[in-house]
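Task: encode each sequence below as structure tokens.

Item 1
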Amino acid sequence: MDVSSAALLGAGIAVLSGIGAGVGIGIVSGKTVEAIARQPEAQGKFTGIFIIGAALAESTAIYGLVVSLLLLFR
């Protein structure tokens, strides 16, 4: 296996981090809806925590995309 093939394989593997981000955001949003259903008066607190959690999960996908692009265009 030459270097360019290994870089393409690594780029493909790096993009797979988007799957984890999707699962993470799904879990966070599901638990947020569940928490709001149990305590509707605390919706503001739950929404802020949800946004932080979703941003942290999405950042892993962005890091994977950046690594993939670095490997493709090196």
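Item 2
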Amino acid sequence: MAAPQLYPAFARYNSWMNKKLYALCAGLPDEERKRDRKAFFASLHGTLNHILLADRVWMLRFTGDRERFASRDRDDKPIHPRGLDHVLYDDFDLLRSERVRTDAQILGWVCGLDEPQLDVPLVYHTIVTDEDWEVPLWWGLSHFFNHQTHHRGQVTTLLSQLGIDPGLTDLVVFLHDEEERKA
């Protein structure tokens, strides 16, 4: 089983990559971010929305904190996603600020985990197979961070197709740079 310090490292990497990709996407006109590029969630904007939506679904499963991980519109009204492709935020700046807020919440939560908590059963209903599942928390957390990386890989591919180089994206590069900054 993975040690508890692994998940805060993944959360820091997650935040670093999201900041990097959102900065690159911010340089594109809105119509380019939203253009259907035949990706699984159609566009850059759609893919970024999906990652945020899925992160919030998982954080709700992990914490049970509906208030903290609910998506809300500009008027603070709850958004009720209709599926995994639901666009939470059509406005890119709002999507970006919600991403930053959620990344901070993820980091804060995983930093409070200890070794025994990672083996606690996580019981949830999955919409993918329409079943109730029970797995150790560490399985859910590992999937959570892997899912983010998977879809960010799609974002980097779409950016590369537009001639935008996302630069180095490897976890080991991030961890090495983080250690260098500490020294």
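Check on item 2: The longest helix spans residues 137-161. The beta strands are 121-126, 131-136.
End of task.
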